Amino acid sequence: MRVLERDARISNLDLAAAVALSPSATSRRVAALEAAGVLRGYRAVTDPAKVGLGFLAYVTVGLSEHTKAAQEGFEAAVAEAPEVRECHNVTGLVEYILRVEVADLVAYKRFHTDTLGALPHIATITTYVVMGSPKDLRG
Predict the structure, then answer these.
(1) Residue 125: helix, strand or coil by DSSP?
(2) CB-based contact 98:86 (threshold 8 Å)
(3) Over the stretch 76-85, which tens digit does the pLDDT of each residue have?
(4) Contacts of 113 (CB under 8 A, 6+ apart)
């Protein structure tokens, strides 16, 4: 799993060598992990700055109403917002943490005002601008 997490494009032959199994056994195990849903997919990892998304922020959102309808409405809205790359429903002082990627501060202000600010049931929005990521293991 760790080898695949580091390099999902590794050949079966190289993967087999890395895990000390035969290529046929390795292929069967990978297929079984895919069939069981352990391996949910493979993706390309892009450089956000090189695709015009050089501004990254984590945003916490607290809702003013703690109802199922308020949560479902919020979740539906952020699912449609391309700026939101991740949305996590969490415990604690707020209901959600968002990972937001946009071109720059101007684009973030537009998202903050026109998208988040236009949603009902939002009590608090707190933005944490990422200045650097010394460790990021997301694939």
Answers:
(1) strand
(2) yes
(3) 999 999 999 9
(4) none
How far is Cα 135 from Cα 139, in angstroms, rounded to an integer?
A: 12
Contacts of 139 (CB under 8 A, 6+ apart): 5, 8, 43, 45
- The structure tokens 């015009």 sit at 52
Enter the tokens of residue 110: 């537009």
Count of CB atoms situated within 10 Å of the CB of 121? 17
d(CA 76, CA 61): 14
User: In terms of pTM, does the model score above 0.70?
Assistant: yes
Question: Distance (Å, rounded) from C-alpha 89 to C-alpha 94?
Answer: 9
Structural domains of the chain, with CATH: 2-35 (no CATH), 48-129 (3.30.70.920)
Count of positions (residues) in the chain: 139
List helix spans (H) across 80-133: 105-110
- 84-132 pLDDT per residue, tens: 999 999 999 999 999 999 999 999 999 999 999 999 999 999 999 999 9
Helix (H, G, I), strand (E, B) or coil at 48: helix
CB 102 within 8 A of CB 55: yes
